[in-house]
Write a structure and sequence with these properties.
278 residues; alpha/beta; Rossmann fold; globular
Amino acid sequence: MLCNGTAFRTVHRRDPLCYLRCRSCGLVSLYPRPEEAELEKMYQDYLPVARESIRKWEREGKEVALRAAETLSLRFEARTGRLLEVGCGLGFFLGMMKTRGWEVEGVEISETGREYAQRTWKVPVHRGPLDELNLPKESFDAAVLFYVIEHVPDPVGLLTEIARILKPGGLVLLRWPHTTPIVRILGPVSRYVDLYHTPYHLYDFSPATMKALLTRCGFEGVQTIIGGRTRPRSLAGLSASMVFGSAAEVLHKASGGRLLLPGVSKTTMARRKRKPDA
């Protein structure tokens, strides 16, 4: 996807599937990949429907969403604008940004997510995928994707389309997992802990491969930060998030933004190029 590399190394196996790391660019990807129709069918049951489960889902990502909302407001002089969330799920972030004065729209392939978001937050949500919607060119100030890019069969196509619908200088913000370093540390034990959520994660990015991806798709000024931590529903997950997420934030701040602890989720921002390359 990022290069024409032909040499790969297996980093994780969950028969009959495995994750391969390109020896040229470092991108980790799933092989063989499920068909797109199969993936869409799987995501129809991905989101919770019970009230308490929905509350837990919201609490899990609230800190990250708040940090993203603050970042977006700081990056725009008007403090508001027109925003698209791709893979908006149940619409929590759309509702949050709507209360802050943003004009918001969402894209979601899950019928459960679309119906809940539209009913609860009174926001428009399109049935994806994005590239089939033919949204107007240069019509949004910002686009956000929370834990979406690793699920997408064609990240280059998706981000190229996002660049098309963003205004020149428009901001894209992505939240993504950085799983491979943990898998390496765990070694043989990783086969018993499916951190890639096979087959849902089609790719696993690093700061370097994420920057390469965004640059290829017409973005500049790529910046990756820690951007808060999630609060997983399991006790073990919550404990790990508290310890490693907090450590990552401290190290990132102490290093002046230079040190990004491997293995913890990250937030990346970039702007659509204002002028095309000569």
